[in-house]
Amino acid sequence: MLEFRFREKAVHGSSKFPLTIYNVNYESGNQQILPLHWHEEIELIYIRKGSAVFSVNHTDYTVREGDCVIVNSGELHSGYSHAPEGCFYSAIVFKLSWLSSLQPDRCQEYLNPLLKGTALFPALIQGDYGELCSLIKALIEDFHERAAGFELLFKGRLLIFLAKIYPLLVPRNRYEEANRVKSQKWNKIITVLGYMDARYKLTMTLEELAAVASMSPSHFCRLFKELTSLRPMEYLNLLRVNSAAVMIQSSYCSILDAALENGFQHLSYFSKQFKKHMHMTPSEYKSHNGKEWDVSMDREIKT
Predict the structure, then answer these.
(1) The pLDDT value given to residue 267
(2) What is the residue extent of each domain of the chain?
(3) Cα separation of 262 and 260, whole Å?
(4) Does domain 19-178 bear CATH number 2.60.40.10?
(5) Percent of the chain's residues with pLDDT above 90
(6) What is the pLDDT confidence band of residue 130, given thresholds at 50, 70 and 90?
(7) Which residues contact 234 (CB under 8 A, 6 or more apart)?
(8) How far apart are CA 120 and CA 73, in angstroms?
(9) 142-159: per-residue pLDDT in tens?
(10) What is the pTM (predicted TM-score) of this model?
């Protein structure tokens, strides 16, 4: 699994083509398929097979094959699947500004509300909006075929997608009002997430994290689990494992060094947590690294 953190630091695409697609295949259920994170780009998540629950901007959406989740810029999002058949999805991540016109025109007038954040994409497309989902599926196919001039075709299809979805855009004030209660709960946890992200390599206790949130440990633990689907210490271990996984990919870093560097005091406990979150041992992950991870624009993630 790639390093997904509270704010994702990955670069998606390039300056000349700020877009990429990730194919993510989880073949068994009851696992987190997308750790909690956010980024500035827009993300279109198309479900190719199976089912899952994605959380976007503090709201859960149950999705199945053919559905599409849309993540606006800066929105916290995550996903998990309990389905026996797992979940296979493709994520299109791109900079919305890439679609801007060089000269002010009518097209730019439609795009400006999205760029300014006064209008937002709806979080879920399904059922009656099959045409939109078909456009997203076509985008994925174009990307993989890479025919001559596919960048032009891709940009054109995205503009068609914007034209078709434009009547469904939601004014920010209405969007925020619909999520106000959950947003208030999240405000109490976001500070803790940032605290954990900055200090995950250090020793932490539940009491320490609860104090950051100004809550009792029991109340904090219940609220954290409600919002993230993980207990505080589980989330902390996920941060540590993801960071260690990135280090393990480097040939110069041993498994023991990766464990110690990321806050694990015992190799056996590290191995247990690594297998829990990555679904393979650290040694298996290291040996698979060269085969399973591709640094090109199109990366396939398998578990």
Answers:
(1) 94
(2) 19-178, 181-292
(3) 5
(4) no
(5) 44
(6) confident
(7) none
(8) 9
(9) 888 888 888 999 999 999
(10) 0.69
Amino acid at 265: Q
**Residue 54 pLDDT > 50:** yes
d(CA 240, CA 243): 5
Structure tokens at 224: 């954290």
CATH number of this structure's domain 181-292: 1.10.10.60
